[in-house]
Amino acid sequence: MQQLIDFSKHVLSKTSKKNYKIPELKSDLLEIINEIEEYSEKKDDPYYIIDNKMIKSLFDLSWLKEIENDDKNLEYYLIGLFLFDCMNIELYRSVIQELFFTKNNRNEFSVLLYWVFENKIHDTSSGDELNFSSYLDFSRLIGFNPILPSDFTEQMSKILPNFEVKAEEVEKEEQIEKSVKNLTERKEYVEEISNYFDNASLPYLDYFIEYSILNQLSYNITKKQSNKIELKTKTSIAEFQKKIENIYHEEGFPVVPTTVDPVLQPHLTKIDAKSVQMDKLATLPKELIKEFVSSKAYSSPSNAHKIRITFLGGGGIGNMGIVVQHDNNAILLDFGMSVANNAIPRWHPSLQFVKAVLVSHAHLDHSGGLAYLINSKNDKRWYGSPTTKVLVEKLLYNTSNIIKEKKRQQNQFTPAMHSYLQTSNLINLFNAFLPLKPKKTIEVAPGFEVTPYPASHLFGSYGYEINIFGKRIFFTGDFSTDPSELFSGAKFPKDCDLTIFDGTYYNGHIPEEDPNTQILQAVERNTRLIVPAFSVGRTQEMIKRLHRLGISKKRQIITTGLAAEITKLMGIKAEYDIKKSFQPTDFEENDIVIAGHGMLQGGTARTLLDSTKEDNKTGIILCGYQAPNTLGFALKISHPLAKQQFHQDVTSAHISGHTTPSSLNEFIANLEGKKVMIHTPRGVNTLKEHKEVTIPSYLEEIVIKN
Ligand SMILES: [Zn+2]
């Protein structure tokens, strides 16, 4: 509480120093301090709560630009937490969320605060969940690079003065930190570093390094065991395996219980231990790696013949990846990259069994991770419509060029992205593609028969029926049952045993305004317009719509860059112009420019937005999904900070490639089998009448008995 008072005094001293012209500010602050002091005296009185309005204004003050640059920045964040005792939970939530979502870059401290907050509201009874590993899980979940253990302890003690880390944990964390630093800085020494590698470091590492570490690790262990096992008598493979398990145990890694490993099973004959050669041992790591990570990777005998579905991503809107496994064969449904932060689904042992990837459509959140998974060294294949292949090719080469030309800040791209999006790797990826035709059934992996259905979400988008020895699973991908400018509406089978469907607008709020009326009015009000839109899909939808509404007769519709290329490629019939590049100086009266980036995080749309900040005769039409921590989102919800900066006329028209809430309810009602909803915004709960709908959480596994 004292800190809160100190903080208020500090803000007060800053405001008087800066000589603010608003006299009320000062008296407000004094009042707040009085109130807080009074509160600290009466805090045992359960009915005494500080006026929330005041707390909010104090918080708002802490965000004034001049104060924000102060070196004691962290103290301002801290306020949210100290207020926890004296403000109601709704306000606290809004303050924390403001911190977390509105800053352009989520910083480490706001992530930490948000995580503490989430834990506090879900489990106020114990502080058990507030440890380093649960923080790592949270960071990974939101696609955020976690801070290192030593910083964690320091920052946490600022948030919770009583926060303590056990001595043995400190030692362990120091070890993690050491190996993470080494691994990040000296990748070429993976081999020696893995000698003292600890699996708690995994969440820090990207997919590529994780994979090589695990490989190397199992190799090391195999090597060790060959020295330890006395090669005198005949040994069974089971005994051999037992010894390996003991070594794993000594090394402190998880050990799979003694059930016999199905990979080793074929070799389960007496072998002459003397004949075990080092070069033969070298082939073992691949098998061992599957065992190493945990029983999750396996069909143990009790799990044999069950179909197991694991959700590696896609809970919440972001990168998608679902593994469907049957014995030692598996397929993957999409493998995406988060549009907000470039994260791909994290590595999971079941990925080793994947023979084929079914790609629902070209959007990068469904296809952007493919280059990580498929390369010349493995025989994985990917499937989709021919159009999907063409579009993924465009999008990935475009990303690869951006990396090459360093058009964007380099730190947006991880080192792994640099290597995986190299031209040679992309060539391999597109060689590994096989086309699927609508309603034609093909076996893509042993026992996996697949039939595609058009999904009406994007050019070439499919939903897939997957038949595994008579069990039928349907995966919708992104889909729309509603007709649009471009598509007629999806028609999927309803009688599968299990349907995994996109719930983007589940229980969502669709504005009542007719988007066409909104667009016509925006055109009427403004001399020129910026339409931020995704290059693939939304741009073409908008071009056709503007044409049909007769706007292209009166105004000049312009598109540029990748969006223009795709529009041409897809043969869109409408009146529009293509400009190779478009600069703010080209932006004239009468122009309507449709350009990326759709959430205004960069690109031509952002350049035009920045250059017309002061002009309230320039209009913006937001017409796509806006992720919570983007400028597009801030403009959409008229956030005060965004409004302060950008004076343009903002229209938010609901145009979507996803099924509307009412049609989605109808779709759910007509489904016959088990219903699994994915791709729902964080925090959405199912309605009372949808008790039978499951929303899987991250890494959740659904098992179907065959
Ligand atoms: Zn999509």
Characterization of this structure:
- This protein is α/β, with parallel strands linked by helices and 706 residues long.
- It has three domains: 2-165, no CATH class; 304-507 and 660-705, Metallo-beta-lactamase, Chain A (4-Layer Sandwich); 515-652, Rossmann fold, CATH 3.40.50.
- 42% of the residues lie in helices and 14% in strands.
- The strands form three sheets. Strands 6-5-4-3-2-1-20 form a seven-stranded mixed β-sheet.
- Helix 5 (73-82) runs parallel beside helix 7, helix 6 runs antiparallel to helix 7 (108-122) and helix 12 (207-228) crosses helix 13.
- The protein is globular.
- The chain starts with a helix and ends with a strand.
- Residues 361, 363, 457-458, 478 line the site of zinc ion.
